[in-house]
Every structure is written in structure tokens, then in C-alpha cells.
Write a structure and sequence with these properties.
With 331 residues, this protein is α/β, with parallel strands linked by helices. 39% of the residues lie in helices and 15% in strands. The protein contains eleven helices and twelve strands. An eight-stranded parallel β-barrel has the order 3-4-5-6-7-8-11-12, surrounded by nine helices. A two-stranded antiparallel sheet has the order 1-2. A two-stranded antiparallel ribbon has the order 9-10. Strand 11, helix 8 and strand 12 form a beta-alpha-beta unit. The longest helix is centred in the N-terminal third of the chain and has 21 residues. It binds flavin mononucleotide. The site of flavin mononucleotide (FMN) has 22 residues, from strand 4, strand 5 and helix 9.
Length: 331
């Protein structure tokens, strides 16, 4: 069965990608995921705050040496080469590249387009074959316009795009007024891939202790519906590759995402629940679904239920919403 696909120009043996999580943060986890069939790995994010903390530490060190021993400052590596940055991250990229035969995609997570972006170059130099950009930004400032939030994404992407030549994907928020317009704007700004969607960890309240809870709930299969809608709408309308993320539990969700038009399908929660070996279960389920319907390749089904390909494109729009409300309880 030919399960091959392309993602941001990278040739993948199948569409299954392990998204950023603690599992992809160790060499052991990465090896297990590759053994279980993962076609690519997204490393956990390196955060802007981590990079800035390291740079501040560097500044303090050089200042201290400046005072006591002027020549010492020049013996420190130049910051643009970032020999000092969060070493462990670059080391992980290097080791993962050396230990696997599948593409390693690094993840940078930040909210401004200044300073820390230079680190993208170091990640590329360490061997990352792609970069995922996660702009985890909560616009809590009520004076901030939607246009300003969009511009922030575009500015960060633009700065990263200038810094590296490897493909760059943006892990998008689902909270734009016009997802399609934003997707095209990101594409114009140089995004090679769009990851739908970033999963925001909404807090809960503890009504006994009167505290904000920040517990992390793994996703459920019914959460695929929002990304599924937008993948189906965007498929065939953007040049950028489309990655589906959120809610994959069984191979059924994988099949649905591919039918909607995803080029790759990412999973984290299912792997954290069942272990890296679950990747093989998902792949086997996908293969048997294709075989049972006598499809000989993944390419034959990808996007066949996207909005553009459906006989009834209204299925993804307002008409179906009205129908759903009016027929509730009648079936
Ligand atoms: C414990 C944990 C750690 C995560 N770390 C990151 C991260 O560092 N960067 C990132 O972009 N996403 C991170 N994610 C989000 C996942 O990559 C993924 O997008 C999200 O869990 C939705 O996919 P899922 O439904 O398959 O779990 C993390 C998720 C979990 C559960």
C-alpha cells in the first residue's frame, strides 16, 4: 500500500507525524516513534522565554568578566552563533537527526519578532529539516485589534522566514475572524505548512480552594470537528501543506482528516495515553480501511471529501447548520 505523502516539500513514507510532546523530547521516545512507523517527528517547543533567559544569563556573564578581565568578553562566542543558547535543545536536534532516518521538525514558540528569532538559524544548523512555529498568544489586552493580532503572526513568521531556509509551518489558532484569509496571508508571508489547530489550554476554576486550575486534559475524538471543518474548506484552496492536529484517538479520525484534505495527520494525546506503539495501530487501521475499499494509495483518497470535491459544498456552511437545528430530535 502506497501511503506516501508530501509535507512542506518533505517526502514522507506515510501521513502520520508525532506532534510536539514530552514523548518527542527524548531520544528514546523519538526512536520508539520511528520504530512504530512515525513518518516525521515534531520536537517539543523551545520557548522564547527560555531563549531570552539564556541570553540574559550570557549578558550577565560577559558584564561580570568585562569588569574584572576586559579581554574575557571577546573569548565568549558571538551571540549570533548562539553557542550558549538552550544547549539541550540543539543537542536533541543533532542527536535525533543522527539516530533516525525520518525528518525532524523543530518547534519554536514565541510571541514577538525580536531577538530570539535568531535562534531559528541555530536550530536549522543543528540539522532540523523543518520548523514549526507556535505563536501561543492570548490577546488579553482589550485594546488590541484583530488586525494587530494577525499582523503579529505575520511579523514573527516573516522574521523566521528570513532567518532560515528550511520549510516553516505555522501552528494556527482557530480564533481568527476569517481563517481562510489568515491562511492565505500566512502563505504569502512564507508559510510552507499550516497546522490546524493549536490547542489552547483553557483554565478551570477550583470552587473549593478558589484557585485557577491549570490541569492538562488530553484530547478526545470529538475534538476533531473544528480542524476537520477548516481542513475541508482550505483543501485545494491553499498551496501550503495542511497538517491536522487535535483529537486523533483511533484510525477513524486519521481517515476523516485525510478525506477532508490533510497532507499529514499529527497525534500526541493518543501516544501519551497508549504509548509510542499506538502509532503502528493507527497506521494499520488506515491501511486496512484503504484496502477494504480497494484504494491502492493514500493519494487516491486525500481530499475527496473536501468542500471543493463534495457534490454538496453547502455541507460545510450555514445551510447545514439550519438543517441540523431544524431536524434535531426527528431522526
Ligand atoms: C504534555 C503535552 C505537551 C505539549 N507540548 C507542546 C509543545 O511543546 N509545543 C507545541 O506546539 N505543542 C505542544 N503540545 C500540543 C500537541 O503538540 C498537540 O498539538 C495537542 O496535544 C493536540 O493534539 P492531540 O489531540 O493529538 O493531543 C503538547 C501537548 C501535550 C499534551
Amino acid at each position: 500500500m502506497d501511503l506516501s505523502t508530501r509535507y512542506m516539500g518533505l517526502k514522507l513514507k506515510n501521513p502520520m507525524v508525532a506532534s510536539a510532546s514530552p514523548l518527542t523530547g527524548t531520544l528514546d521516545g523519538i526512536r520508539k516513534l520511528e520504530d512504530a512507523g512515525a513518518a516525521a517527528i515534531v520536537l517539543p517547543s523551545l520557548f522564547q522565554e527560555e531563549i531570552e533567559a539564556e541570553e540574559a544569563r550570557y549578558d550577565r556573564l560577559t558584564e561580570a568578566h568585562d569588569e574584572s578581565w576586559p579581554e574575557a568578553a571577546t573569548s565568549f562566542p558571538v551571540m549570533t552563533e548562539v553557542k550558549l543558547g538552550p544547549h539541550h535543545y540543539l543537542e536533541l536536534v543533532r542527536q535525533a537527526r543522527a539516530a533516525t532516518a525520518i525528518p525532524i521538525i523543530a518547534s519554536l514558540n514565541g510571541i514577538t519578532n525580536k531577538g530570539w528569532i535568531a535562534y531559528a538559524k541555530s536550530v536549522e544548523q543543528a540539522g532540523a529539516q523543518g520548523l514549526e512555529l507556535n505563536v501561543y498568544f492570548i490577546p488579553a489586552d482589550t485594546t488590541l485589534s484583530g488586525a494587530a493580532v494577525e499582523q503579529r503572526y505575520l511579523d514573527i513568521l516573516g522574521a523566521v522566514r528570513l532567518a532560515v531556509s528550511i520549510p516553516v509551518a505555522v501552528k494556527l489558532s482557530p480564533y481568527f475572524s476569517s481563517i481562510g484569509h489568515m491562511a492565505l496571508a500566512l502563505q504569502e508571508a512564507g508559510a510552507d505548512g499550516l497546522v490546524l489547530f493549536n490547542r489552547f489550554y483553557q483554565p478551570d476554576l477550583d470552587i473549593v480552594a478558589l484557585k485557577v486550575l491549570i490541569d492538562l486534559k488530553l484530547s478526545e475524538a470529538n475534538e476533531i470537528r473544528l480542524p476537520l471543518l477548516w481542513l475541508a474548506v482550505l483543501s485545494g484552496r491553499v498551496r501550503a501543506s495542511l497538517a491536522a492536529t487535535t483529537g486523533v484517538s483511533t484510525s477513524d479520525e486519521v481517515v476523516k482528516y485525510l478525506l477532508a484534505g490533510a497532507d499529514v495527520v499529527m497525534t500526541t494525546s493518543s501516544l501519551l495515553r497508549h504509548g509510542a506503539g499506538h502509532m503502528a495501530v493507527l497506521l494499520a487501521g488506515l491501511e486496512s480501511w484503504l484496502a477494504a475499499r480497494e484504494f491502492s494509495s493514500l493519494a487516491a483518497v486525500r481530499g475527496i471529501m473536501s468542500q471543493r470535491k463534495l457534490a454538496d459544498p453547502q455541507a460545510f456552511e450555514r445551510a447545514n447548520y439550519i438543517k441540523i437545528l431544524q431536524t434535531y430530535g426527528h431522526s
